[in-house]
């Protein structure tokens, strides 16, 4: 297959290498004048427009800064590319969702948003346990993720990276949207949101360093979500409390603990699992063009983005109506 990779930051490099490993031919769009040695022989374009004029592609991936997703996605849909993979989040706003939906519905395609956590063995096991009702009816959830921003991309000054800048769609809410997306996929529509967003100035970035969000789901479940760029050691876990027990998914330790009333605790460990394997599994499935319920659809991507934007609005950010959804129009970090 001929696969176009738009953007060659850390995630673009990862996807490009994995696609090559799977035996496909890649083409790269990057503003960089010189390609990394690993991709030195790959055909390289300076812009998506240039690449799309050059030839047809079987598939394309969007791995640019978040604020550039809409433009690239609309271009791919206009050229009727059959398989499109958009790295999370779908965008930084919902301004263009109407046009994206219209174009996506105009021809037969597979459009997915890259929430790779659904390919994690821990998530797969957690879903199985919830489906088996081993902890009864779910009542509440505590989701926590934090890691110091300097550890994300150690090869660059984080203060100049996309996470630090409003213009590129940074901040913990968009960067760590995984937590909102998997909670939405597990527990359904969110009906009420309260949030507090913090930028202490410690990291010297424009965007929010920390956020605490309270979610109420139509299903009756409530969730508390904490996100931050400050933890000196990665912490990422989700505790699900039910009427008959609890499930604790620890992503950092690669374990899932199930404790149900009257039964011995069960520990599922996948410590030998390599993080890149979930990206390879996702890309193999995506390029096979077979149905895979682990993928987030366009509607899933819109729903999770809507939750984040509603959290921003609840925390006092200025929002404007667009496409019958909210659009953040002023993303200056809260003081």
TrEMBL record:
Gene3D superfamilies associated with the record: Dihydrodipicolinate Reductase, domain 2, NAD(P)-binding Rossmann-like Domain
Residue ranges of domain GFO/IDH/MocA-like oxidoreductase in the record: 125-247
Listed InterPro entries: Gfo/Idh/MocA-like_OxRdtase_N, Gfo/Idh/MocA_Oxidoreductases, GFO_IDH_MocA-like_dom, NAD(P)-bd_dom_sf
Pfam families registered for this protein in UniProt: GFO_IDH_MocA (PF01408), GFO_IDH_MocA_C3 (PF22725)
Entry's Gene Ontology molecular function annotations: nucleotide binding
Domain Gfo/Idh/MocA-like oxidoreductase N-terminal residues, every copy: 2-115
Domain of life: Bacteria
Record-given protein name: Gfo/Idh/MocA family oxidoreductase
Species, as recorded: Panacibacter microcysteis
Lineage, opening ranks: Bacteria, Pseudomonadati, Bacteroidota, Chitinophagia, Chitinophagales
């Amino acid at each position: 297959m001929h696969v176009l990779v738009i953007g060659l930051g850390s995630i673009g490099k990862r996807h490009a290498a994995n696609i090559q490993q799977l035996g496909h031919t890649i083409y790269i769009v990057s503003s960089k004048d010189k390609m990394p040695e690993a991709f030195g022989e790959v055909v390289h374009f300076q812009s998506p427009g240039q690449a799309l004029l050059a030839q047809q592609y079987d598939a394309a991936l969007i791995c640019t800064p978040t604020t550039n997703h809409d433009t690239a996605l609309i271009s791919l849909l206009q050229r009727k590319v059959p398989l499109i993979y958009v790295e999370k989040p779908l965008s930084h706003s919902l301004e263009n969702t109407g046009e994206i939906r219209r174009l996506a519905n105009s021809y037969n395609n597979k459009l997915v948003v890259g929430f790779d956590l659904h390919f994690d063995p821990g998530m797969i096991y957690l879903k199985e346990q919830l489906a088996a009702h081993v902890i009864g009816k779910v009542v509440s959830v505590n989701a926590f993720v934090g890691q110091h921003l300097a550890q994300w991309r150690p090869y660059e000054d984080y203060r100049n990276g996309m996470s630090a800048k409003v213009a590129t769609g940074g901040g913990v809410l968009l960067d760590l949207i995984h937590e909102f997306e998997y909670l939405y996929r597990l527990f359904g529509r969110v009906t009420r949101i309260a949030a507090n967003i913090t930028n202490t100035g410690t990291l010297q970035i424009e965007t929010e360093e920390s956020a605490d969000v309270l979610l109420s789901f139509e299903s009756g479940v409530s969730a508390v979500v904490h996100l931050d760029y400050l933890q000196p050691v990665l912490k990422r876990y989700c505790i699900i409390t039910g009427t008959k027990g609890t499930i604790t998914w620890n992503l950092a330790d690669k374990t899932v603990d199930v404790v149900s009333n009257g039964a011995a605790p069960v520990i599922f460990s996948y410590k030998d699992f390599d993080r890149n394997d979930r990206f390879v599994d996702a890309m193999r499935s995506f390029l096979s063009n077979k149905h895979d319920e682990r993928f987030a659809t366009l509607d899933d991507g819109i729903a999770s983005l809507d939750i984040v934007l509603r959290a921003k609005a609840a925390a006092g950010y200025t929002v404007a109506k667009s496409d019958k959804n909210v659009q953040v129009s002023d993303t200056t970090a809260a003081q």
